[in-house]
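Handout, section B. The chain below has 643 residues.
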Amino acid sequence: MGGGMMQPHAWRWLVLVVMVLAVFDVRLYMMASEARQAALDRAQYTLHVGVDVLAQRLDQQLTTYDRLLSGIGEAVRLRGRISDTPDLTMHRLLLRRHAINPELRSFFLVRETGVMAEVSTAYPLKEVDVSGRDYFLAQSGSGADEDRLFVGQPIVSKLTGQYIVPLSRRVENEGSRFLGVVAAAVDPGMLTKMLAEQGLPDGYVLSVFLQSGQGMACYPARVDCLQRKVDHTPLFRSLLPAEARGQFAHQTLLDETPGLAAYTTSSRYRLVVAATVDEKTVLVPWRRDLGNYVLIAIAGNLIVAGLAWFAVNQVQRRRLALLQLAHANQELEDRVLQRTQQLKRSEDRARTFMNTARDGVVVIDSNSCIVEFNRAAENLFGYSLKEVLGRKIDMLMPQQFGAEHRDYVQAANGATGVRSGSRGREVTGLHKDGHEFPIDVTVGSSGEGGQSFHVGIIRDISERKRLERELQQQAATDGLTGVLNRRAFTAKSEELIAVALRHDRPLSLLVIDVDHFKKVNDVHGHPAGDAVLRALARMLGAALRTGDVLGRLGGEEFAIVLSETDEAGARDAGERLLQVVRAARIDHEGTALHITVSIGAAVLRAGEDGFAALFSRADRALYRAKNSGRDRLALERAEDAVA
């Protein structure tokens, strides 16, 4: 430099220095902005996943309770009414269901008048009128749906004085007449525990509401959770009517200050799940790191400016300046490495969150290869993460379901964007040791940039299927004698008749009635009558062939369908049964009882309409046997067939 004028090469150095500083500062600003946005994106994703997973868990739990209530309602339907007096049988049924689900406060039945009939926690029950409760009113009206589970708002129980969340189903008889309501009392604390198990970070708020805006549960727990009414908030006034689910930033969802929020509605029940977090809470770690970015910017600017100054004015010190610049670059790389490690820790926390889920979580890519496999899935299928990572999902299902699954994945790959979990499907899973077991699978998919991922929430439903089979068996069996009840016997008979008509094979029907059964009840009492019916059922069952079907039609009347049996065979079978019953001795409390029966028999004719016509002819033959002196067999006559 000379004459007070800056030399051209100095100007070039100055421009170069300014450009370097500008690029450096812009890059640091971009890194700080990207880090801030990454923190907000992770928080938004946590909110979105949290409400979706919780909604699915609530759906699955309520569906389990719905099936339990449906089974109890079916038992009431078979009885035809809810007793006006304490009913020990129904109390024991409620007690068994409560023992299977101890997390519930109670199961109870309400008569059509609104008076509580039975409860699983006490017997006999004092008279309690619940006709004004919403869970009764919603099911007792003429427009109520028998197949719909009603979730009521939190109330104080009239029995215990504690808060409960009521669940109820309408019960009707075969004629669709309203019999009453079967209900369950859910402990609100169980809902709060389910929210806590989501494992959201500190500062996040998770809430469950009815679609009316009535609070059900929240976490962290608040004193006013159950009394909270938020139907005036933006979520219920504007967001929910427009969209069933959503996520937002810089917007008020409930009563809190604007921040990040996500919500979704239940796919089956009238529930809303919402999660919120203040933006300041999310950005606390980022603000701690912001000072480092400022320090790096200042230090970088000073170092670059100093290096440039020395480069222009002291060429002899260039090497030292270059070393200082290399040192500055190393510091910057260290910061980048530190940031990379922080991101890895964030990913580890996300995996920890997934591993805390009680249900199995399996994530596959568009090629059906497993990319995530949480700890619950390891316990469910018996494989470790290392054993399944990168392998086809087909290894977790029986071979015959592979093609169906591939078609499903191919169809899902064609969709774009994020789609919420589909309705749960009951399929078959394959354990590592080779045994198959029933599972419930709920699938959600996302597609971005030509790549698709599918997230499956999996639950083992072996115990639930066992209970369903038990309830089905109870629904088809006569409670006193253990043989088929009238409805199940009729259905089975229709099947056998259809087969016989289709293949032109013989078939006969025997209708059996105990002679003078009323006298047994009048002289010895109803317990003796019950003992007679049970003994008769055992005798008839022991005398039958494997392919024959025995059922109790009601009272003292039984019926038997004899497959591959013509008129001669029906006569032989009927006479054999008469001899067995005559020779039988029925002991009851030290008294030997002897009975006889009358039997009416009819043979299936070509072109028969079904069970009703065949039963009508056999029933007329039974009345002839009764009128002819009882203790005998009467076969259908020609006029019976014409009639």
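Note. The two ends are 131 Å apart (CA to CA). Compare this with the example in section A.
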